[in-house]
Amino acid sequence: MTARTAREAPEPRTARAARTDRTAGTDRTAPAAPAARSRGGKAPTLEEVAAHAGVGRGTVSRVINGSPRVSAPTRAAVEAAIAELGYVPNRAARALAANRADAIALVVPEPEARFFAEPYFSDIVSGVGEALAETGMQLLLTFAGGARERRRLAQYLAAHRVDGVLLVSVRADDPLPDLLAGTGIPTVISGRRSAAEPLPSVDSDNAGGARTAVAHLLSRGRRTIATITGRLEVYGASCRLDGYRRALAEAGHAPDESLIAVADFTEEGGRRAMRELLARRPALDAVFAASDVMAAGARQTLRAAGRRIPDDVALIGFDDSAIARHMDPPLTSVRQPIEEMGRAMARLVLSEAGPTPPGKPEPGAGPQQLVLPTELVVRGSS
Amino acid sequence: MTARTAREAPEPRTARAARTDRTAGTDRTAPAAPAARSRGGKAPTLEEVAAHAGVGRGTVSRVINGSPRVSAPTRAAVEAAIAELGYVPNRAARALAANRADAIALVVPEPEARFFAEPYFSDIVSGVGEALAETGMQLLLTFAGGARERRRLAQYLAAHRVDGVLLVSVRADDPLPDLLAGTGIPTVISGRRSAAEPLPSVDSDNAGGARTAVAHLLSRGRRTIATITGRLEVYGASCRLDGYRRALAEAGHAPDESLIAVADFTEEGGRRAMRELLARRPALDAVFAASDVMAAGARQTLRAAGRRIPDDVALIGFDDSAIARHMDPPLTSVRQPIEEMGRAMARLVLSEAGPTPPGKPEPGAGPQQLVLPTELVVRGSS
DNA sequence: ATCACACATGGGAGCGCTCCCACCGTACCC
DNA sequence: GGGTACGGTGGGAGCGCTCCCATGTGTGAT
């Protein structure tokens, strides 16, 4: 708005004044600066800070960037000047000069994707945001479109717009990860696409969570435990199935494929799978669903079939979403530390993009793979 | 597997070095540039495009920015060069030179805030993202911290880091909006803070939604309709209460304060309010809750009290969240067009930040206030 | 006292872009 | 014929910062 035409007469001391009393900005047109800022609408520049502190540009830059090569008194003087002028570095200039962006992109799949649903999204974002906030990095949200868009996206991301990329809920056949890897941008993926995920990744212990859930069912005396799994091409889904199998095997149960039904992570899928299961094994007394949504579907079918939960059939879900908490009866579910995964992803990508400080050569032991523990939240359904 | 282990020796200056020549892409794991790009790892610059097309820098810039002052053949030549080189403008440089950011910030309150819960967050983000994608603007996610942080935040946002700010779920006493308004950054708020919201805003028709819900209850033959409202300092909550009152008044019911209970938008609050209501008016036959979460709480209390839903008491919520869909029975709820609100917000800031061609057209009719219609989604609970 | 070698510091040279002004033609006017 | 207008174009001058080299100014060793 008010153009940059304004002739500014650097008026440094306004600082304190503005802060303490300036609120009187009755003149609606006049942007009462939130912090002291020499009038003229323009934010102070590094050069102005330097002049104000009586030092050179380079010194101010050093102070801002935390270089140790500045004497204590000088640093103090510069910091005072910065505070007084309410100086805030111009990101664009910094990015241009330093050839970095101070920003991390979180690429989210299209809205229809399962990921976008609760609770995943907000928690991941929350975790990522938290970790990033500590470092002054910015969080860019980017939406991956179709195949063509993805190519363009990789290109854009590569064009020095971000220092790192966070990928979530990526399907195994998505070209984006490889496109990105090709550009050399540090990339971290949440949810491995396979056991041999080539990208640094953060995942939750799907197998362990499933195993714990089933073990819990067994400890409650359940004998015929079925499972509703997601499409097995989804690595996480197959891990959950593995966990289910392992728990049963550990308890001495013989493998029984008739207790396994594959669905697609939707409620309708859950209903259908439950019907199948009931038809095949009418005597089942417990069901472990690989997601809360599928559990919700299963619950409906069970009800319709006259089975009481948990009296006749115990039910456990996965995700510990709001649905689980509000279901009737409340659903026992495997909680994934989503927010923590977000934090971990952010930290991982930061370390990749980071200075690679001397002495932290990271033994070339392949990509970093983090697997975070899950937790069984026991509620009324089991 | 050890794909990215290519981390070179800790060599501080690598950055600069790499840009000029190095990283010849010949080593590492086949970079396979997404698009043709002059080798050397460096992204082509505008200058290179100009040379390639045999024109001047200015002309290329004009083409990129869609200036009409370029002849057709020249434009074609430039576009060909751009495509051939796989040129992508450097955002930082552009931002620096043009003094704009090409980015909009979405400021979200802290995670504990109600807002962060489903379904608000993802839908808003989705809508905003969609609208922004069309314009090539970036979406920055920022987290508002405590009071002090907010001051800092306003400062940062003002320091030319974004062209506009989107505020969501702002409490009436939050200083951030005013801080921002003071800096002159285009700001749009979702959910007016009062009837006289000074900021451009996008809101849903809370009163209308509530009125429709209650009218629906009346049409179903309910006579004693109670309501559980949120804290009335929250403008939206008081609007919903107004809608409730209006519907009743329109049906000729006399105002009855004993049918109104105030809660705090939490499940526990809903339970407590329902208990109150039941104690005061045991004969009530319907409840309109100002949020699904409170409705969930109310439902529990009703159940515990032996009331059947909807046979004895009809229940309606607000938000149409996943909770509503999965409740038992499924909850009738007032849907807000959240995603559309996100889109509207984005478009609004864009128009504020936008060209603002010569002078300041904008018929100075006060801040833009958009109120989007709500919709009653009828389910089993009513 | 001299030399060497740290440090601390100042400031030039860009980073890649937009802005804007000068300049070129060509079409049109008197 | 010589203006007068332009639409089209090239390129200088920065935008505010980081880098890095050159230049002081202390200290210790000789």
What does this structure look like?
Chain A is α/β, with parallel strands linked by helices and 382 residues long. Among the domains of chain A are: 39-96, lambda repressor-like DNA-binding domains (434 Repressor (Amino-terminal Domain)), CATH 1.10.260.40; 206-337, Response regulator (Rossmann fold, 3-Layer(aba) Sandwich), CATH 3.40.50. The first copy, chain A, has 14 helices and twelve strands. Chain A has helices at 14-20, 46-53, 57-64, 72-85, 91-98, 120-133, 147-158, 176-183, 206-219, 235-250, 267-280, 292-304, 322-326, 338-353; strands at residues 103-108, 138-143, 164-168, 187-190, 201-204, 225-229, 260-262, 286-289, 314-319, 332-335, 369-372, 375-377. The first copy, chain A, has a six-stranded parallel β-sheet, sandwiched between helices. A six-stranded mixed β-sheet of chain A has the order 7-6-8-9-10-12, with helices on both faces. In chain A, helix 6 links the parallel strand 1 (103-108) and strand 2. In chain A, helix 2 crosses helix 4 (72-85), helix 7 packs parallel to helix 8 (176-183) and helix 11 crosses helix 12 (292-304). Chain A is elongated and about 85 Å long. Mean pLDDT of chain A is 85; it is low at 1-39 and 357-361. At the A-B interface, helix 5, helix 6, strand 2, helix 7 and helix 8 of A face helix 1, helix 5, helix 6, strand 2 and helix 7 of B. The structure holds a DNA duplex (30 and 30 nucleotides).
Descriptive key words:
homodimer; 382 residues; alpha/beta; 434 Repressor (Amino-terminal Domain); Rossmann fold; six-stranded parallel β-sheet; six-stranded mixed β-sheet; 14 helices; 12 strands; 41% helix; elongated; disordered N terminus; DNA-binding
